[in-house]
Amino acid sequence: xxxxxxxxxxxxxxxxxxxxxxxxxxxxxxxxxxxxxxxxxxxxxxxxxxxxxxxxxxxxxxxxxxxxxxxxxxxxxxxxxxxxxxxxxxxxxxxxxxxxxxxxxxxxxxxxxxxxxxxxxxxxxxxxxxxxxxxxxxxxxxxxxxxxxxxxxxxxxxxxxxxxxxxxxxxxxxxxxxxxxxxxxxxxxxxxxxxxxxxxxxxxxxxxxxxxxxxxxxxxxxxxxxxxxxxxxxxxxxxxxxxxxxxxxxxxxxxxxxxxxxxxxxxxxxxxxxxxxxxxxxxxxxxxxxxxxxxxxxxxxxxxxxxxxxxxxxxxxxxxxxxxxxxxxxxxxxxxxxxxxxxxxxxxxxxxxxxxxxxxxxxxxxxxxxxxxxxxxxxxxxxxxxxxxxxxxxxxxxxxxxxxxxxxxxxxxxxxxxxxxxxxxxxxxxxxxxxxxxxxxxxxxxxxxxxxxxxxxxxxxxxxxxxxxxxxxxxxxxxxxxxxxxxxxxxxxxxxxxxx
Length: 500
What we know:
Subcellular location: Endoplasmic reticulum membrane
Keywords: Acyltransferase, Endoplasmic reticulum, Membrane, Transferase, Transmembrane, Transmembrane helix
Protein name: Membrane bound O-acyltransferase domain containing 2
Pfam family, one: MBOAT
Structural class: mainly alpha
GO molecular function: acyltransferase activity
């Protein structure tokens, strides 16, 4: 579970101080530069070297304008990680990179919170820095240490890097103007293909422009309809909604003594949901604007739909309707901060041999910062995830007997999911231990206790163990068929991972 950071007393759009105007101005400037970059520095008109240089210089300029001298962290972190790549052995590169990048991240977070007293521009600067650095380090390790043992999955092979990036390519990937301020995280191979101009041809060939008869002319699609008609309209609506509601429905009012004493429980639940609903549009604005920048540069192209229309969701970070109408805890998280969730899945969940769910939540908490509220949120999220999995595994089959029962189940699970998400992320907004525990105690820790009861009464085997037991218990012929089925499913999932 990965959520953007926020700090007490910070601006509504960018945590820390009075920098939201700079941030929005830089992102709008980046949007204009993305259009110029696509039109005048197209791969057909200039070399990858020039595109790398321009993308890097523009990115560093935006970082300097927005963050001031704190932007030096981009270069320091890049230098440390690149040094590890050069001097570390292939077998241990991923370990050293993990220690260096995560250690530097935590050091910056501790310094910001406990030395500067929330004075640094934004923790999210450092968190996004570390995530992208570590993402690339893992990709390099996938193509080096693990390939010798033949342990790469299809999705890991897609991410694996076949050669050592040059320093310019490395800086361009990490500091390009399209993603330096708000991301999202992207694959190094996807970025390199975009710079070299090979991404369109590869995705065009993957599904023949969406037409099996091949009669559609193979022109490179334009992102102007997606950017102007979709992304920017969503940004305007999200920003207007947030500025209109966030002061009317503050989250900390949910722990006001007078409110708690005088308000019925059901109205407290409704208020909590509305307060969180009013808070989300600021993230919709930031991530959708970042998506528009990448799409305007041509980076977001991701092939074609079956009707031949181009898709621009290669590195999209959220699906708003799927978030607001999610009918499970997992479905909500799968559509929120998508690229970071994919990164956590690849570097932690798929690799951790013991309790990968808890390990992934813990890594996500460390990625976000050192505020106690983050850890309260993610520890609560572990219980919520396990309880939701148990309910889905044991209860859902009884509602699949008819469409009417399924609709009832969907309505109930939607309401439960929204309440559970709101309850879980309150400490993430309040940050401090005292207010967070005050909120949970006003609710008598009811959802914590309910999750514990559900997990004890409705145990569910881990997915890895369940799949292994089913495979071991099948006859030989059936097992072969099962393996073929799983292979097909994995290929579809990996293709879907590449699409997102």
